[in-house]
Structure formats: structure tokens, C-alpha cells
Amino acid sequence: MEDVGNDPRLQVVVDDIPSRDELRFEHEDSIYCGIKDGFASYYAWSGDGNDGGFSGRCFEITTIDDEQVTLKGPWSSRAGCVNQRSFGPVVDVRIATDSSALERGYTFRTGSLTLEAAKQAIDLVDEPCHLERQLKYSNDEPVWVPVLDKGGKA
Description:
By secondary structure, the chain is mainly β. The protein has one domain. The protein has three helices and ten strands; from the N terminus they run ββββββαβαβαββ. The strands form three sheets. The chain has a six-stranded mixed sheet with strand order 1-7-8-4-3-2. Strands 5-6 form a two-stranded antiparallel sheet. Strand 5 and strand 6 form a beta hairpin. The longest helix has 8 residues. The mean pLDDT is 85.
């Protein structure tokens, strides 16, 4: 992706992607984040009247205290917002459960992994690379971007 403006993306094939029902969400400020087995899901939602995301669709989540919460129209947010909270850091990735997606180069979906899980995935890459911490959007939004060790971006 060196010839486009998008950041390089880590493409990861996993055995299973947990459903939202399997996650237990923590809440800090306006961010809700659920993490299970290295997989992360998060939403930005500030309460009633904030229903513009996902065309006002409702998302039922369970908190770490087993409380059922309905998020009406949350925004999907971005890793940089989550990484400013106590439950980060996370890395945005392209994720699939079918390994043939690697050969095709498509049928990935967007997802997020914990930084630890993303580092484990990086360790499996044939070409030497690492995750580099960068500040994006503002000085307080750290994100991790895959970078080839020979100097180019992964």
C-alpha cells in the first residue's frame, strides 16, 4: 500500500472471531471496549441523543459487571481513541477465518486485536517486520502500524 494514502494494514487469519455476545465490555468516557482471546471490539457512544452512527441501529452489549446495555447508533470509532483509555492498546487489522483470503487478497473484514495479539501475529510473518507506534490525528492518539524491518512499510 505504499502508493496510497492509507496506513499499511496487518492482515490476520484466525480460527474464530468471537461474537459480540461473547465479549464483556468496559466503559470509559464515551468508549465501550470488549476484549476476548486477543480480539477487540469497540464503540463510541455518549448516551441518548447520540444515535447517528450505523443509521441509528441498536447494539446489545454486556458489560464486565454483567449489565445489559443498548447502544443506539454508536460510532465504530478507531484504535487511537481506544488507545487513550485504560483498556487499550488495540491494533486495527484486516481479519478473516479463511486462510484462502491471503491468496485472494480480499474477503477480509475490519477488526481489532490487542497489541499483544497483533505482536504474536507479526511474529508469524515471513518477512521481518514490527509494529511501530505512531501518533495520528492528534498528539494523544497513538496507533501501531506494521513496518518492514528493512525500512519499508509492511
